[in-house]
Amino acid sequence: MNTDTNTLQKVALHHIHEQLGAKLVPFAGFQMPVWYSSQNAEHQTVRQKVGIFDVSHMGEFLVSGVGATDFLQYVTSNDVSSLYEGKVQYSCLPNGKGGIVDDLLVYRLGQESYLLVVNASNIEKDWNWLLSHKPEGVEMRDISAQTSLFAVQGKLATDALQPLTEANLGSMKYYHFIKTTFAGVPDVLISTTGYTGAGGYEVYVPNEAAEKVWQAIMESGAPQGIQPIGLAARDTLRLEMGFCLYGNDIDDSTSPIEAGLGWITKFNKNFIDADLLKKQKEEGTSRKLVGLEILDKGIARQHHQIFDAEGNLIGEITSGTQSPTLKISIGMAYLNTPFHKIGSEVFVEVREGKRIKAKVVKMPFLG
User: Fold this and answer.
1) Torsions phi, psi of 277, nearest 5?
2) Do residues 111 and 63 make contact, with C-beta atoms less than 8 angstroms apart?
3) Number of structural domains, the chain?
4) Which of 93, 122, 158, 235 is deepest in the core (most CB within 10 A)?
5) Are residues 170 and 213 in the same domain?
6) Tell me, what DSSP letter sits at residue 95?
């Protein structure tokens, strides 16, 4: 990853994060706030009140034109035909070799008109992959560099945002979106996809309106105790919910079936890798992504190896942390079958010569 601060990209509100005293770190080619106060404090703010994340590093592509639906049906694993205007879908891009190019969100804006939201680290890769499969008549536009994205998350998110719009935010269902005037800015896209499990909204605005909208949210949410939240807390929040992070839990070498994403892999259509993935679903895979709860003292971290009671290597941690909510160490890991079964006891090597006991548990970690 590029860590030269002179060549890292900056989000539109970079100066705001500097003013707020954020610790800025290289992430996915951007200089991003990892925390403002502390990871644990920010995590608890989102779980108990409401926080705002600047996730403007994410990528946004517009896909439209005759054949756009058929195109997306072929390149994504989920069933795009089930979408209607105002509905969002979680999906992935199979890579033609059984792996995943990226996971993404698909928004249906209208007939043959879609917004794709992709991971920041994969913007160029995803764009080139989609372009290589795009048929004549379909138009693609990369609006990533012109778009700011704020995630306002927590049980008080509706109270914080409702004064800024006439739209009834509280009536919005999970994985839906609206376009409305927000904080005086017209045609703001507001969705309810979440990545924290705490409830809340995503607010997409053009860069030129970003500072106005950010300040309006901070002022409107002040009575609810809104605070800016960095990427470190975002990671622990998503891990408590068992949500995959591309580059950790899924990548070009993992299949959606192995990763427990069979629910976004629909075989009522033809798509890239459909035959291979259908075979995996029917016959099973040699490993599965599972949740682990650490039973001994110690913290599971990414790349820690996992062994059975006889000392055989059976897997590896993909994401691990000390859960700020549960006060225990949790992790996600690929485990060879049959060790992936709920209740299985395994041993995580946290350092050379030291292995700690863990058990396979159902995700999400938070009930």
Assistant:
1) -70, -35
2) no
3) 2
4) 93
5) yes
6) -
User: How many Å apart are CA 197 and CA 61, to the nearest integer?
Assistant: 25
Amino acid at 21: G
Identify each DSSP E strand in the chain by its residue range.
Answer: 9-10, 23-27, 30-35, 51-54, 59-64, 88-94, 100-110, 113-118, 139-142, 147-153, 177-182, 185-191, 200-206, 227-229, 287-294, 305-307, 313-322, 329-336, 345-351, 354-361
Burial class of 262 by CB neighbour count within 10 A (0 to 12, 13 to 18, 19+): middle
The residue assigned the tokens 């991003």 is: 32
Q: In CATH, what number is assigned to the domain containing residue 51? A: 3.30.1360.120
Residue 180 lies in a domain: yes
Query: How does 134-171 read in b/e, with b if 16+ C-beta sit within 10 Å?
Result: beeebebebebeebbbbbbbbebbbbbbeebbebebee
Residues 190, 250, single domain; the answer is yes
Structure tokens at 10: 């900056």
Q: Which helix (H) or strand (E) holds 129?
A: helix 123-133
| Short-list 50, 253, 234, CA closest to 152 | 50
Quote the CA–CA distance of 102 and 81 in Å, as a whole number.
20
Domain boundary residue, one of 233, 266, 285: 285
Residue 11 CB neighbour total at 10 angstroms: 22
Please answer whether residues 179 and 110 qualify as being in contact, where contact means their C-beta atoms are separated by less than 8 angstroms.
no
For the full predicted model, state whether its pTM sits above 0.90: yes
Output the six-digit token pair for 342: 């709920």
Q: CA angle at residue 342 from 339 to 347, to 5 degrees?
A: 50
The single residue listed with the structure tokens 């225990």 is: 328
pLDDT 10s digits, 54-86: 999 999 999 999 999 999 999 999 999 999 999
Question: pLDDT tens for residues 13-63?
Answer: 999 999 999 999 999 999 999 999 999 999 999 999 999 999 999 999 999
Question: 255, 99 in Cβ contact below 8 A?
Answer: yes
